[in-house]
Description:
24% strand, 14 strands, alpha+beta, 15 helices
Amino acid sequence: MEILFFILFFILFICLIVGLVRPRLVLGFFKGDKTRKNVILIFGISAALFFFLCGSVTTPPSWLEKTSKQETSPIDNEETTEETKIEKESIDKAKEEKPEVYTASIGGIAKTDLLQLTFWGDGAISMNVPVGWNVYTGGECATKSILARDALSELKQVFYFSEAGPVYSNQESKQRDQNYIAMGGVKLPWFESPIVDPLTAENFLVNFEALAQVPFFQQVFPQVPIMTNIKIINSEKITNRSVYITDAKLIRAEFQQNGKSGEGYFYIITADIAMGQGYSLGYGMMFIGITAPKGLLDLITPSLKESLESYTISQEYITACINAGNKAVAGILEAGDILNESSDTIMNVWENKLESEQRMSEKYSDAILGKSRLYNSNTDEVYEITPEFYDFYQVHSDEFEMSDLEHLPDNKWGHAPLNGAEHIK
């Protein structure tokens, strides 16, 4: 309806304007005088009437309706105001209360919250293993090996494989065996072993998956971990090894096992045994591993280090191996010493890694917060300062009693810093 009234108002308004200029054009059908006075009386009053009617039937805007609907009584307004006040006070109180922050290093937790170990032995060898873990063994004398694994999490495991192999050290050696079998020769047990060339510790670790799935290895040790997609994180050379050793390293690596992501420390010693005329086979003379699900390795390393160190071989077993004429018995005689040595090496690398990560974290935090640190070599104290003060101190150090402060060395980032403004004189 308001649209009709508006159209009529618009037409009458146009007639009013035109009539004021040419009265005869709009009053042609009206009797009487064709004057401007009559134009105003007829069209002006009519336009005003329809303008009023148009305004009276127009629907109020939505914002006005919304405002009307939200109007409440004075009592309701008072209740809302009181609730708002209480809510605001609660928010202000929460902002004032600062939550307590508890900090602890991974290394500290791992060293104090050790896994509970229990004794395990089979008469030949023994080792303390975490409670609830399964233990598997395989091989004899110099090849005697052991694997301890969490029954509920297969990536938590510690193992020692002695003389893991053989593998082929070069393509020519494998080709020679292929030709021998093709001519009717006996199929050698290691015929399907991988080629590891060069015979480095890293290559042995990457190819261990293929070696572990060879039938002769599965027959001796079916529970051997099948680790795929090996990604070397870092490696450290092991020095002071025997002359027959080809390579010896402690490796930290990530891997996949049965579709699960894990990481571990691997102590690997390889040896290339030449048979003559270019034919040679390689062995992992010592393959020791500590593994865990990715992200948990640093938490269980100290516990599994304790487990490795407890590995012992009974004297009766050693005597039996000697009496059996086992030529490689020297290897089993030194196995305990090697496991102790490897566990110490693993712990050193573990501690250095955590210290480096802590240092990087502290440096990043200082950069974000706009802070720096100075070191007092006389008192072995660390002071937290602003970068501006550090720049000033470099130029005006002779004006301070502590005139020989230095930039914080990397090996001192573990020190808790003191407030430089209060302690630097």
